[in-house]
Amino acid sequence: MTVLVTGGGRGIGRAIALAFAEPGNLVAIAARTRTQLEDTAQVIRARGARALVLAVDITDEGAVARAFEEFRAASPSLDVLVNNAGVGGGLPIDQTDTASWKRVLDTNVWGTFLVTRQAVPLLAPGGRILNMSSVLGRFGVAGYTAYCASKHAIIGFTRALALEVASRGMTVNALCPGWVDTDMAEQGMRIGAKATGITYEEFRAQAMDRVPIGRMIQPEEVATLVRFLASPQASAITGQTYNICGGQTMD
User: Fold this and answer.
1) C-alpha atoms less than 13 angstroms from C-alpha of 169 in its C-beta half-sphere
2) pLDDT of residue 191 exceeding 80
3) Four-residue CA torsion sign, 228, 217, 162, 120
């Protein structure tokens, strides 16, 4: 099996990449920070899989094209694409500059498009595309207009693309994690704490109070869902969006 995971150097992306790290598999991981990618690649190889490091800014059309030239040199085809790379952050709209708002949309939406456009011709029948949305793709949160807009967009992109490639035997699905125990989540909580004038510990406690299971989701739990959706057992599932949020949202 050949897998490509964007944002594969840390957090959820790293957990997903390692979930596919089995003998015989090629796991390609893409992100801007090469050092994090190399650390993840070392673990992938230790587990008996081949690793391909693609240091790339997915918002740069030319860089994405060059990364896929490197990918095609290593493998002529692709079985699973996981569009996981993304950025967060939030401010009230009247305090948000255009560059930071655009950065969120460029990474979370434009980057997903650029990578997917290159990947689709490589996907054989039975290919899988998994797109990372968020619970903020299900509901709005004040101060997060860019992030919410981007994650709602991923769900629409998923539904349209699923219809577009269904006749070619491919499936496309999205995942909506809630609070996942990663550096990105901690950063988001610290931003939220500062904005509301409370401590990080108080903000985290309040956030967990709104999660019915009362805890953070582990990156490995998200990776397990990705593995299922990438499996032959999920061949009849397409155009769907899966919440993995501890009951934070139930629609």
Assistant:
1) 9
2) no
3) negative
Taking alpha carbons only, the member of 18, 234, 17, 50 closest to residue 126 is 234
When the candidates are 3.30.457.10, 3.10.129.10, 3.40.50.720, 3.40.50.2300, the CATH number that belongs to 2-178+218-244 is 3.40.50.720
Residue 21 burial by Cβ neighbours in a 10 Å radius (0-12, 13-18, 19+): buried
Residues 16 and 6: beta-carbon distance below 8 Å: no
**In the annotation, is 144 catalytic?**
no
Stretch 215-243: mean pLDDT: 97
How far apart are the C-alpha atoms of 169 and 164, rounded to whole Å? 10
Rounded Cα–Cα distance for residues 69 and 118 (Å)? 10
Closest residue by Cα to residue 68 from 24, 110, 117, 25: 117
Average pLDDT, integer, range 219-228 = 98
Is the pTM higher than 0.85? The answer reads yes
> Is the predicted pLDDT of residue 251 greater than 80, yes or no?
no
CA distances, 115 to each of 40, 50, 98, 105, 179 (Å):
20, 21, 24, 14, 25
Helix (H) or strand (E) holding 17: helix 11-19
Number of other residues whose CB lies within 10 A of the CB of residue 175? 26
Pick the catalytic residue: 144, 147, 200, 242?
147
**What would the mean pLDDT of 97-124 be, rounded to a whole number?**
96
